[in-house]
Write a structure and sequence with these properties.
About 30% of the residues lie in helices and about 20% in strands. By secondary structure, the chain is an alpha/beta fold. It folds into two domains: about 120 residues, NAD(P)-binding Rossmann-like Domain (Rossmann fold), CATH 3.40.50.720; about 160 residues, 2-Layer Sandwich (Dihydrodipicolinate Reductase, domain 2). Helix 1 crosses helix 12, helix 7 packs parallel to helix 12 and helix 8 runs parallel beside helix 10. It is globular, with a radius of gyration of 20 Å. The two termini are about 35 Å apart. Catalyzes the NADPH-dependent reduction of N-acetyl-5-glutamyl phosphate to yield N-acetyl-L-glutamate 5-semialdehyde. It catalyses: N-acetyl-L-glutamate 5-semialdehyde + phosphate + NADP(+) = N-acetyl-L-glutamyl 5-phosphate + NADPH + H(+). It is found in: Cytoplasm.
Length: about 350
């Protein structure tokens, strides 16, 4: 079968490295272009030794003509880069998957408020499809530009979507209490991510407002058919990978089979695993895998639903989900290159 020519812009961060790892075993993907201005001339497996024997690509300075010769280009870049480059690639017939936030928020004013950048590609923003396959699969199949979701928004939306779609819970009192490993902050050197700053500690951050809040609100409002109100508090925990979202909602009416609701909603979904009644998912159970494990519980008052949702922030929360969308965009089996089990221990 003919290979699909791939470009990756910004392959030096954690999401870029994860893309390289996943695409290295993808039977239809052929990496043609891997860019980094800072690391130009260096082999990818020199920067990421885990790729030795699997990826012989060499970083290069971005060249618009070489990128335009690709069938698909992934942006694993800081916010603000994709909006500058993606429109020209799309016009040249390249399908674009952006792992930054440039095309996630449909309201350009909201994007500017939260990311402190004026959006320079409003037409592309209007065209972009939000890349959460379990909610937008058919639109992703037809898309030229996919905005890959953030990690927290993925865990929260998958966890609450069945309840909101069915109109079963109060939409104004939702709570998302979420924890993430340190790789969620990126590979750039920061004091707050140093081992001695993180280990044996646990803290909340972004309580007055986190960048993922408007994305979560936008997605959940689409599920509910009305604007939702949600309190979202992220926390940093001393592990490298993983997100655990504990989600709270109040039922509008009694629900006899909570797990059955989730099992029916996600029946046939390869990357959402609804656990047996009473189970509590662990982040290590999804480490390295493109899967969200969910366990809904009914609180002792019979009115509060507590949903536990775990993902690997670098896989289902970023690069794995991007490859899942890539498969849909090119008419491939959705699980292609993504069916490996999680790492254990």
């Amino acid at each position: 079968m003919e290979s699909i020519k791939i470009g990756i812009i910004g392959g030096t961060g954690y999401t870029g490295a994860e893309l390289l790892r996943l695409l290295a075993r993808h039977p239809r993907a052929e990496l043609r272009v891997l860019t980094s201005r800072q690391e130009a001339g260096k082999r990818a497996d020199a920067l990421f030794p885990a790729l030795r024997g699997h990826c012989d690509a060499v970083f290069e300075v971005p060249d618009p003509e070489r990128l335009a010769a690709c069938d698909a280009v992934f942006f694993a870049t800081p916010h603000g880069t994709a909006m500058q480059m993606a429109p020209a690639l799309i016009e040249r017939g390249v399908k674009v998957l952006d792992l930054s936030a440039d095309f996630r928020l449909k309201d350009a004013a909201e994007f500017q408020r939260w990311y402190k950048l004026e959006h320079s590609a409003p037409a592309a923003l209007a065209e972009a499809v939000y890349g959460l396959p379990e909610l937008h699969r058919e639109a992703i199949r037809r898309a030229r530009l996919v905005a890959c979701p953030g990690c927290y928004p993925t865990a929260v939306q998958l966890g609450l979507a069945p309840l909101l779609e069915a109109g079963l819970v109060d939409t104004r009192g939702l709570v998302a209490d979420c924890k993430s490993g340190t790789s969620g902050g990126g590979r750039e050197a920061k004091i707050g991510s140093l081992y001695c700053e993180v280990t044996e500690s646990f803290k909340a951050y972004g309580v007055p407002g986190h960048r993922h809040l408007p994305e979560i609100t936008q997605g959940l409002s689409g599920c509910a058919g009305e604007t939702v109100g949600i309190t979202f508090v992220p926390h940093l925990v001393p592990m490298s990978r993983g997100i655990h979202a504990t989600l709270y909602a109040r039922l509008r009416k009694p629900l006899a089979d909570l797990r059955g609701l989730y099992a029916q909603r996600y029946a046939g979904e390869a990357f959402v695993d609804v656990l047996p009644v009473g189970d509590h998912p662990e982040t290590r159970s999804v480490r390295g895998a493109n899967v969200c494990r969910i366990s809904p519980h009914l609180g002792p008052d019979g009115e509060t639903v507590v949903v536990l949702s775990v993902i690997d922030n670098l896989v289902k929360g970023a690069s794995g989900q991007a490859v899942q969308c890539f498969n849909l965009m090119f008419g491939l089996p959705e699980t292609l290159g993504l069916d490996a089990p999680a790492l254990a221990p």
